[in-house]
Amino acid sequence: MLFRRRKPAGYKEKLRELVWPRKGFLRPPKYLMMRILRLTASPHAVAVGVAAGVFVSWTPFIGVHFVMAFVITYFLSGNMVAAALGCAAFGNPLTYPFIWGITWEVGHLLLSRQDQMAGQTIDLAELFHKLHFIELWKPVLEPMLIGAIPPAAVTSVALYVLTFYTVRGFQARRRARLVERARLRLADPAAEMPTV
């Protein structure tokens, strides 16, 4: 198999890599950042895509995040790849517990349900097993959806601004390097001539 290790990793090495990856924890975020920066689209399109992906990651509808991000991105003339990367980077198994906790608390605060829910328990396993949308809407989905709007708006606007200016600066530096490289090639054509 291509890219297989010559010496298979042992049990100890697999366990160590599970706790502390060989390439480090910063490599995946750096890769995502560089992938977003290198997209061949306008800074606005890239920033809209990332913001749409982040916005829908706050909603409780996990199975359709990518579809929702693509629809929002399409209507705002954004970049679809940036939307997918925004969804994947912001909404993942490591962040979902925090997102759900925040949306749950903010939703109950906005709906003024803290006093009504005191002492009551919700059997989520039973609700999800039956999959009755009406029964699931009031106690779970409604507060999470209402609670998702404020943090989603704040984070998506903040990430739009951050992504827009970062992508614009990266593309300007890249254009300047390409112009300088072309100027040097035109100034000294003999240096570029291959020797036979």
Automatic annotation (TrEMBL):
InterPro entries: DUF2062 (IPR018639). It holds the Pfam family DUF2062. The chain crosses the membrane at residues 36-58, 145-167. Keywords: Membrane, Transmembrane, Transmembrane helix. Residues 27-175 form the DUF2062 domain. This is DUF2062 domain-containing protein. It comes from Rhizobium mesosinicum.
